[in-house]
Specification:
By secondary structure, this protein is mainly α. Helix content is 49%, strand content 9%. The chain folds into two domains: 7-56, no CATH class; 73-179, no CATH class.
Amino acid sequence: MLFKLSSTVIRDIIKFLSHGLKYNASKSVFLLFKAGNKAPSNVPPIKIGGSALGRVSKVKYLGHMLTERLQDDEDLERERRALAVCCSMLARRFARCTTDVKLLLFRAFCQSFYTCSLWISYARRAYNALRVQYNDALRAVLRKPRYCSASAMFAEASIDDFFCIIRKRTASMMSRVRGSTKA
């Protein structure tokens, strides 16, 4: 199978160049998406200004991890690690604050899940690992024992649980998409 640039991609490149935009080849890479087991076998080098771009199997784009198989496990793991670091910092630095302050900080720093509305293809294991990390994060911030009930803890604190946050973010994105006038 031979790799071919679509007319849309070529038109966009010409548009960028006509507006005086320049690509930085040293900061640019390319990613080929695979469809099942199908992938181009012969991919010619892609060059910008004479410099060949590196091919990658995953890349972080606008805060979201894109992979060649369009799986979201990498992004879920990135989010889980970021949550672990953030909650550890909050639990350590604000241990002596009031519960109200801790809950305010938790809402501000541990509930973003920035690109969660894009997650559609992931392993249940990766999703559950993030959910457990979220539950453990609130336990750590509130200094609750590991065995305490997560649902009771969220209810007492009037904090949205993991599933509620995901539903709200997804509904918000769908509402914005449906209300958009752009094609």
